[in-house]
């Protein structure tokens, strides 16, 4: 250790770069005794020609990790040549861990570590030291940088960061076959001692596997390990540092090794003979039995292929492999009574390394016995197809079906229709003969084909039945005339020219059109005399509508009706007349239709449709405003406002319009008050809610008038019993004043016959409260006097 530190010291001397002299405890005396001189320039202190005595520069210290002593661990000493021991120099420390991890004695320059250090957390610390004048606080020398390294101890065991491991190796592998490489990591310093040198060994898993102690490579140690004997192996691996020496730390991991399968076992039948029994009713192609060979291999190495040994009757049945169960499925190819054959089982995927073991196939014998079964009748055909013309009379025989009983001692057969397939009973069948006849009139246009089932059963055993499908095609009879295939929207331009085709039409027939069916087109006789349009037959089941003249006017006629006669070529010949509607439209010079509406003729030129709609909408709004205004004015005239001015006994009712006095019976008819019987039958609903009235001050009760009281009671009973009365309360005021008034009665009841006989001068004597009324009647009297004059 001393020799290595001396060599390190020599190297740092060669690269001297500072004025401070950090001293290792073991080399302090040696370093101070070996000074050398350097020529430096110190601005402001010495000239460049002066020689400065320098100390050896030691810029690296060591400190032990995990130090557990009771006192701080001594690291080293810093000393300046300018320090004469008089206590005028102060040493300072800065950088990584200064003050928290490392401290320095300001007077002596001794450095101590005040807490335990872990190299794996931080391997070194970089610090800076400086000597300062204790009085002036000025640096005596430039700041020097040095490193304190944490010296490693063996305090970390090896760890398998990727463990536990999973590996596989093929079975039957030779000795030394590669399995897996494991690796352990030691956090200790690999450059210092043997703390990080790891050695591998197997603790569990021998003698099947081995491991290289340096590389950690695991290999097979035994030959011909068989997966069918043992498939899984668990190996325990240990990694130990210090080169495996005593006192080293160790870590372990587990390696799970699986032997993968190889095709080293041929398939074998568990027995040499298989017996199968097959009912004679088995269908060709159906599975009649299964056999199985056993292969202890796994996966694709256990896939088996079954074959019939050549020359052993492979034309009677076939054998295939069920991929899920690896069984041989025997299927019937041909009906037989008894059969014996050999079946071979072999592997699909062979491994040529194991051919020496023997042939990878096995053979077994299969014996098949056919069992007799009472079977249902068999139809002579798998399906029957028949034809019949539509509208054929009921009871007409269309065809027949035939079924036989093939069993020994054959039984007779009965036939009947499965009504689930012919629920409407269009057909019947003779139960003994099997003849099929119509039971209803058939219409090809409603149903062109009938599909139903015939069931045949044995008389001796009705439960044994068989079924066959019967298809009956209904042949067409020409009974419908042809018609235009689709509704056409036909139009003609006002500027059309003679011979111009305006529409191409085609025809369709509800009947089943035979091959070569032709439709002919022509104008009806009544339309042939009109020179407006004509029909041009193209003789390909289409026709063109052509113009006969030039120029059409929408103002004169905007619609034309053209009757077209369409005739077919079947027997009997059918024809129909179809009327086409032709609209006259306004077009541009290229024939593009601009407008076909009749209203467009009268629209002003230059206004768009949107503008016209806006104008119409404005007109409608104005009309609504006028109607609402008139209605409000009329309502205002009907409503009366009753106000009270200097009320003595009655209310004065003012009208907004000028009436004709008592002769104006439209405003208020007071005849009802004179004679209640006059309006007995006049029951008018008051649908307008009356305004609140200003009631006069109540007068002391006076003696009632019998007629008025009876009239009021009668009206009250009528309103209470009237179901058409409005749902709100209304108040009817009658001009009954009673007796005892100072001004006597103002009512026209019992008054003089004419207004001319009235004298209203007495109103002026009633005081200021009747002033307005006196002036009103006084002016009227003066007016009448002037008029008479």
From TrEMBL:
Q: How does it sit in the membrane?
A: Single-pass type I membrane protein
Q: Where is the signal peptide?
A: 1-25
UniProt subcellular location: Cell membrane
Q: Which Pfam families match?
A: CADH_Y-type_LIR, Cadherin
Extract one GO cellular component term from the record: catenin complex
From the record, give the transmembrane residue ranges. 601-632
Cadherin domain ranges (all copies):
80-160, 161-269, 270-379, 380-484, 484-602
- Please provide the Gene Ontology terms (biological process) for this protein: adherens junction organization; calcium-dependent cell-cell adhesion via plasma membrane cell adhesion molecules; cell migration; cell morphogenesis; cell-cell adhesion mediated by cadherin; cell-cell junction assembly; homophilic cell adhesion via plasma membrane adhesion molecules
Say which domain of life the source belongs to. Eukaryota
Tell me the keywords, alphabetical order: Calcium, Cell adhesion, Cell membrane, Cleavage on pair of basic residues, Glycoprotein, Membrane, Metal-binding, Phosphoprotein, Repeat, Signal, Transmembrane, Transmembrane helix
Primary place of residence?
membrane
GO MF term (any one): cadherin binding
PANTHER family documented for this protein: CADHERIN-12, CADHERIN-23
| Functional description taken from the UniProt entry | Cadherins are calcium-dependent cell adhesion proteins. They preferentially interact with themselves in a homophilic manner in connecting cells; cadherins may thus contribute to the sorting of heterogeneous cell types.
Q: What is this protein called?
A: Cadherin-12
Q: What is the lineage of its organism?
A: Eukaryota, Metazoa, Chordata, Craniata, Vertebrata
């Amino acid at each position: 250790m001393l020799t290595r530190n001396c060599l390190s010291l020599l190297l740092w001397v060669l690269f001297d770069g500072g004025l401070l002299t950090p001293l290792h405890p073991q080399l302090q005396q040696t370093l101070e005794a070996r000074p050398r001189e350097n020529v430096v320039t110190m601005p402001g202190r010495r000239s460049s020609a002066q020689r400065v005595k320098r100390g050896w520069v030691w810029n690296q210290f060591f400190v032990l990790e995990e130090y557990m002593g009771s006192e701080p661990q001594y690291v080293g000493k810093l000393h300046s040549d300018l320090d004469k021991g008089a206590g005028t120099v102060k040493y300072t420390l800065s950088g990584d861990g200064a003050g928290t991890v490392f401290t320095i004695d300001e007077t002596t320059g001794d450095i101590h570590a005040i807490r335990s250090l872990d190299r794996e957390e931080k391997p070194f610390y970089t610090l800076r030291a400086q000597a300062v004048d204790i009085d002036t606080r000025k640096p005596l020398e430039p700041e020097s940088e040095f490193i304190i390294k944490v010296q490693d101890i063996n305090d970390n065991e090896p760890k398998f960061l990727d463990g536990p491991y999973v590996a596989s190796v093929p079975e039957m592998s030779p000795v030394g076959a590669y399995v897996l490489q494991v690796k352990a990591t030691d956090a200790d310093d690999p450059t210092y001692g043997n703390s990080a040198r790891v050695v591998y060994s197997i603790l569990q898993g021998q003698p099947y596997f081995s491991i290289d102690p340096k590389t950690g490579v695991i290999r097979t140690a035994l030959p011909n390990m068989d997966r069918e004997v043992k498939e899984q192996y668990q190996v325990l691996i240990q990694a130990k540092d210090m080169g495996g020496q005593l006192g080293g730390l160790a870590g372990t991991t587990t390696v799970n090794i699986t032997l993968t399968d190889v095709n080293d076992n041929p398939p074998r039948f568990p027995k040499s003979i298989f017996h199968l029994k097959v009912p004679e009713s088995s269908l060709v192609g159906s599975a009649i039995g299964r056999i199985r060979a056993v292969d202890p291999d796994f996966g694709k190495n256990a896939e088996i292929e079954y074959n019939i040994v050549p020359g052993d009757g492979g034309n009677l049945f076939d054998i295939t492999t069920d991929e899920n169960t690896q069984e041989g499925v025997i299927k019937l190819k041909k009906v037989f009574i008894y059969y014996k054959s050999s079946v071979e089982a072999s592997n699909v995927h062979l491994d040529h390394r194991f051919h020496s073991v023997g042939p990878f196939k096995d053979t077994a014998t299969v014996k098949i016995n056919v069992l007799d079964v009472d079977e249902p009748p068999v139809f002579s055909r798998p399906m029957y197809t028949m034809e019949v013309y539509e509208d054929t009379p009921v009871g007409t025989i269309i065809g027949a079906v035939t079924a036989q009983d093939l069993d020994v001692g054959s039984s007779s057969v009965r036939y009947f229709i499965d009504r689930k397939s012919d629920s409407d009973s269009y057909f019947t069948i003779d139960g003994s003969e099997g003849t099929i006849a119509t039971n209803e009139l058939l219409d090809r246009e409603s149903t062109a084909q009938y599909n139903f089932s015939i069931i045949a059963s044995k008389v001796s055993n009705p439960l044994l039945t068989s079924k066959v499908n019967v298809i009956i095609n209904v042949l067409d009879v020409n009974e419908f005339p042809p018609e235009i295939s689709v509704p056409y929207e036909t139009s003609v331009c006002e500027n059309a020219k003679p011979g111009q085709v305006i529409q191409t039409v085609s025809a369709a027939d509800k009947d089943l059109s035979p091959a070569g069916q032709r439709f002919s087109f022509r104008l009806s006789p009544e339309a042939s005399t009109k020179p407006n349009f004509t029909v041009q037959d193209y003789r390909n089941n289409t026709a063109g509508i052509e113009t006969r003249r030039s120029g059409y006017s929408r103002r004169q006629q905007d619609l034309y009706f053209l009757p077209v006669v369409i005739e077919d070529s079947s027997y009997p010949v059918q024809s129909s007349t179809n009327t086409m509607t032709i609209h006259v439209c306004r077009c541009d010079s290229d024939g593009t239709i601009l407008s076909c509406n009749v209203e467009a003729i009268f629209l002003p030129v230059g206004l768009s449709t949107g503008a016209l709609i806006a104008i119409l909408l404005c007109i409608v709004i104005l009309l609504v405003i006028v109607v609402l205004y008139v209605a409000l004015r009329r309502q205002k005239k009907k409503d009366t406002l009753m106000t009270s001015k200097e009320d003595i006994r009655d209310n004065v009712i003012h009208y907004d319009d000028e009436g004709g006095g008592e002769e104006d019976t439209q405003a208020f008819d007071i005849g009802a008050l004179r004679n209640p019987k006059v309006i007995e039958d006049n029951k008018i609903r008051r649908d307008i809610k009356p305004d609140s009235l200003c009631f006069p001050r109540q007068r002391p009760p006076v003696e009632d008038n019998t007629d008025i009281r009876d009239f009021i009671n009668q009206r009250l009973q009528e309103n209470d019993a009237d179901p058409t009365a409005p749902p709100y309360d209304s108040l009817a005021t009658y001009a009954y004043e009673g007796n005892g008034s100072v001004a006597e009665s103002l009512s026209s009841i019992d008054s003089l016959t004419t207004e001319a006989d009235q004298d209203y001068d007495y109103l002026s004597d009633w005081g200021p409260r009747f002033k307005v009324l006196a002036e009103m009647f006084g002016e009227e009297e003066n007016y009448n006097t002037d008029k008479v004059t």
